[in-house]
Design brief:
It is built from three helices and no strands. It is mainly α and 127 residues long. It is elongated, with a radius of gyration of 29 Å.
Length: 127
């Protein structure tokens, strides 16, 4: 799979951002509709023979959709936004071009690699 371009990354970040924003707004709306839906459902189930009115049905459906849909949209948008990750920084690309992709000082547990000198040589023991 080819590396995505900066434009593709930016478009994906924007799309994910809009999805997260819409999900958060839907979750905010659910804070108003879900309690009212619970109230209507509780009243309809407590009173014998009392049915769920039109407002109760609408609020219950809207509450469920905003709660479940908003949560799913927020999580999906967040994952969509983060799925490509951030592209390499131009300074990192320049450093890789100049010095290679490996570490500048390779790990050597037995020798000293601090400062000038040969690998494995302790700079404090030089004459």
């Amino acid at each position: 799979m080819p590396e995505p371009t900066q434009e593709q990354r930016a478009r994906r970040r924007r799309t994910g951002g809009w999805m997260v924003a819409l999900g958060v707004v839907a979750l905010f709306l659910s804070t108003f509709t879900v309690p009212e839906a619970i109230h209507h459902l509780a009243r309809a189930s407590a009173v014998e023979g009392a049915g769920l009115g039109t407002r109760g049905v609408v609020v219950a459906v809207v509450g469920a959709v905003t709660l479940l849909g908003g949560g799913a949209l927020a999580v999906t948008g967040f994952n969509w936004r983060r799925s490509l990750g951030e592209g390499p920084h131009p300074e990192d690309l320049l450093l890789d071009e100049q010095f290679g992709d490996g570490p500048v000082l390779p790990y050597d547990p037995d020798g000293f690699r601090h400062g000038p000198g040969r690998p494995g040589e302790d700079p404090r023991e030089r004459d």
